[in-house]
TrEMBL record:
Organism: Paenibacillus algicola
SUPFAM superfamilies: P-loop containing nucleoside triphosphate hydrolases
Family per similarity comment: Belongs to the ABC transporter superfamily.
GO MF annotation list: ATP binding; ATP hydrolysis activity
Official protein name in the record: ABC superfamily ATP binding cassette transporter ABC protein
CDD domains, per database record: ABC_DR_subfamily_A
Keyword Cell membrane: no
Keywords recorded for this protein, A-Z: ATP-binding, Nucleotide-binding, Transport
Record Pfam families: ABC_tran
InterPro entries given in the database record: AAA+_ATPase, ABC_transporter-like_ATP-bd, ABC_transporter_ATP-binding, P-loop_NTPase
Record domain ABC transporter: where: 18-246
Amino acid sequence: MERLQERSQRKKEGIALIQLNQIQKKFGERVILEDVSYYVQQGDIVGLLGPNGAGKTTLIRLMNGVISPDGGTLSVFGLNPAQQGNEIRSRCGVVTESAGLYQDMSARENLDFFSRLYSCRSAARIESLLERFQLAKHGEKKVGAYSTGMKKRLAIAKAMLHEPELLFLDEPTNGLDPDGIRDMIGFLRQLNQEEGTTIMICSHVLYQLEDICDTYLFLDQGRLIESGTLPELEARYAGAVKLVVESTLTLKDALSTGFACEELGQGKFMFTVPARDEVPDLLRKVLSCGELYSAEIVNRDLESLYFEVRRRQHEH
Ligand SMILES: Nc1ncnc2c1ncn2[C@@H]1O[C@H](COP(=O)(O)OP(=O)(O)OP(=O)(O)O)[C@@H](O)[C@H]1O
């Protein structure tokens, strides 16, 4: 409890948990990460996004002290991963695609086994994790018979056995159906709020992370090409608003609003509005011509912003 209070206090104070300063990493002569600088605030959920091979896993291995940088400096919990890797790893949880669970053991047996291995066995902790991840009812079932979603949840429970302050997740929603994705996002948000866990999620499936991350890092070919919260990225990259309206409007009505528009189907138009604060004006004009069934902004989602970031990056 004291630990949780301490964590939420540190979140309020905006303390940096991870600091990366001009990190460079090479494998042989090949530069894998170049000039990566960033800090992660205590209690944040961070999306580390980028295509395959961008360097996401390499960055996480550096933060865990499994490998060392060739240039720049980094600290995690104020410690140097190259020298104090053991202490950092004892305060972190890592969940990779191959979660390392024993398929012929039950969930309870897996958690019991790993908590002994990590010297943190607590029956109460195991039960509370099974409850938290809605696995208690299936605790005696062999993991081999679990669904993908249950296995992913158990993998996170395993990584949380020692109450880590920082959790690294590799593609936590990969292979899940829409219900599974929604559940996973809910579990992670709850974990973040109730245990104060700082979470870094690596993924290349952007739209699934839209509702959960406080901040995003876009990595491309080893470089951090952009970072920020969704509103910050929107302000920098969204430009004109694309608004799809379903209504009883005719093309003539739509053109009479004075906004550029494209007809997508019967009564369905995509308007281009120069700025967000002009949207109400457009909607008033639409309503004065007929009935309005729906209006949706289609170019402010994370994926559109990401493509815009990359487009501008490649222009330079
Ligand atoms: N130990 C290694 N030795 C040589 N090259 C490596 C090593 N580890 C990673 N690389 C290379 O570094 C680049 C970045 O790999 P990394 O695994 O960090 O990317 P990633 O963004 O995590 O990709 P993915 O989304 O596929 O997991 C890749 O080109 C990879 O082949």
